[in-house]
Write the structure tokens for this entry.
Amino acid sequence: MVESGGQPASGEERTSGAQAIGRAAGLLRLIAAQAATGTTLTDLVSSSGLMKPTCRRILLALIDAGLAEQDPVSRRYFLGAEAHALGVAAATRHAGDPLAHEAVIRLARLTGDAAFLQVRRGYTVECLIREDGDFPLRSHVLAAGDRHALGAGAGPLALLAALSDAEVEKALDVNRVLMEQRYPTLSPALLRELVAETRRRGYSLNRGVLFQGSWGMGMAVRDATGQAVFCLSIAAVEIRMQPDREPQLATWLAEEVARLEAVLAGPRLRPAHSASPSQSRVLERT
């Protein structure tokens, strides 16, 4: 690595630079997790583990770069216009394979409700695709680009349940502060119960735990190695996900999951595992 002045950068400088980038990226992910409402400096300090002066300094640099912005009235932080521009540019590569999009479209048409493709990003889950069915009453709690903690919602719960017991506990520990702040109804004890239920059923059920009246069903999608990288899910108002309809919804969901897993097992598509934030590709062509 060479500095702009032509002198090689020292190992300490390289480490410091990489650390700064990592911290900035971490703050951007925390801001993105609260994209709709924005987040406060206090929350960012608590969630990131950074000292307040360090956190503020990085935020100012992100604002200068257009990647973040602060509302002048509420003083809350939001993603900036440059973050949007970068997201649009990246979408052509990371929005998923057409076959995945077709699976979500079919689910929306079959169920009449909202269907989603989500991908695991470390200890969070990002919604890549949303398609709405034709039923007039809809759940609006999840949109493409939204990111939630593992376990928070039907899709994230399906992915959490697909992990080993040790990995589940690690996820609960890593997300402890985030869960307390954003999802107070989801205690570690309740999440463990929901994980056990999901494993027994083969799919997850969110019975309006996060938002009253908004229910969901999710199923993990595994790659050729058996790792749960993606999930398909359905969201609907409560009256649309009662016991008499549940078996049919689960069948449609399982059929689309099987199609995607067959694709992931073949040579046409290669998943790039998303077990850590640095491994963020979705479906990459060979």
